[in-house]
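Incident log entry.

Two folding requests arrived from the same account within the same minute. Monitoring flagged them as a possible duplicate submission, but the sequences differ. Recording both here for audit purposes.

Request one:
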Amino acid sequence: MHTEGVNWELSQEFMVASRFRGKYMSVIPTGYTQIKFKDGKANFIFQKVTTTVHNIIVGRLWIDNHGTMNIVNHVSGERANIKFHSYSYFSSDQPRKVEGIILDKKGNARFYIFGYWDSYLNIALINNQKNQQGKVLIETGEPKRIWTVKEPLGDSSMFNFTKLAIEMNEPDNQVAPTDSRFRPDQRLMENGDWDGANDRKNELEDKQRKARRKAEAEAERAIANNQQPPEYQACWFQKVQDTNTGSVIHTIRGNEYWVCKEKKDWSRCPNIY
């Protein structure tokens, strides 16, 4: 995924592993998120934490995020180690607690960050720290509120979706024809035609299977002729090795997408719907 703002660019690429344990299911993302500021002063890279959905079979569904998130500014060398506390029936802490330390490039603890991932985050300057009986105690200045959740437009019947989530599937004729908003089964479902949506979904999946079989057959023919099998080429992205993480990622091909969007030239897009 790639998106741009006035002063920043965000890209992320990850795969998801899942574990089902009867009463709950955990989703473990692997990959990186990168936020780069165009003034060149910051390039933040981090990995996501685990999300667990509880009461999968019986009871009211609820979600918990837990794990440690390490955020690194690869320009300045500063980093943040943020812990998302997992829910515990035996803990007196309020659920969804988050806390962590922000360190400078020399590894010195400079700020303490704390709050709850579903409501707010505070930050405080660390004035002093000391070891006491094997524990590190910190003294901080007055905390400052740096983020407060924006109340969702809808209620629980709308899953507490944000404005972005509610409007995400609104049709937009200015985007590429491969955009998921053009999925015919999705449009039928949003219009309340459930049977029609299911039929179109089956047709799309059959089309995808045929395309995969064709690609596999071409690869087999190439191997049989001692040739390199053709590799899938994305329209707007290219594979590169990230210099910061060492992983192979997809990066957007310059401004090609935006130029094609302005010209309304989508001739390179495959027919997937």
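Request two (distinct sequence, not a duplicate):
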Amino acid sequence: MNSAKVDGGSSGATRGQALRSSVHLELPIQEYLFSDADLKTVKQAMRTLAQRCMRRYDVSYDFGPPAPALGPRSLMDRRYGLTDEQLARTSGYHLGDRDPRTHPATPPVPPVGEALTVLSGKERPVEVNGVKVPAHGCAGEAEKKIAGSGRLGSGDLAQGLNGRSFLATKADRRVTKVFRAWSECMKGKGFSYPDPLSVMDDKRFQGRTPVPEEKKVATADVACKGRTNVVGVWFGVETAYQKSLIAKNASALGAALEAKESQLAAAAAVNSTE
């Protein structure tokens, strides 16, 4: 993912670098979080390891195809609301060809019998075809080979700081000031909303497909974000806030980064053999 960063200084964060789209922006905390691509790498390796493990028991299970890429395109895609002008015109606040409402994923058939026993380790017997089932089954074995004794994926600290910075900066006076400017811009276009996030909660826009009024509002929303620089200001303020949080939690986050890199290296090694 390409990153775009701004100075975290107070004056720069107030004005903000002029930014219209958020999808390719990268906040400092994202270094410690697993991206969608990272998670895809890990899931692929977990599936491969689980399948290899199950073959030891002469038990097969169809995991089904990998889940399609649905939802926001990145962590930042909808963090500050809708910022994609083209998508606003065609899909309103819906997600176009990535919308789970119109492109539902088909879950795999749940394992039963020996497949359930071997995969989860939750069912008796503890042996299948004369081979002892590991604790937590083949799924647990696969996770241990990727994450060791740690937690698979992003840790609680990084996720918590990510959520904390969002909530704190949403209430920051520099951000609320630009919210008011955005709201005035929207009023000038005939729409009344207090801030750029409330518009996405409009009950009229929660259906399976976008309605005409939704597209009009969404197009105005993106235009007003560009005119008032909502993305630039909010991103600048949150970048500075996260840098401060990271400095205060440097040791623990350093360990989290090492765990992330170790998991991705282990997953990549598994995937390279397929």
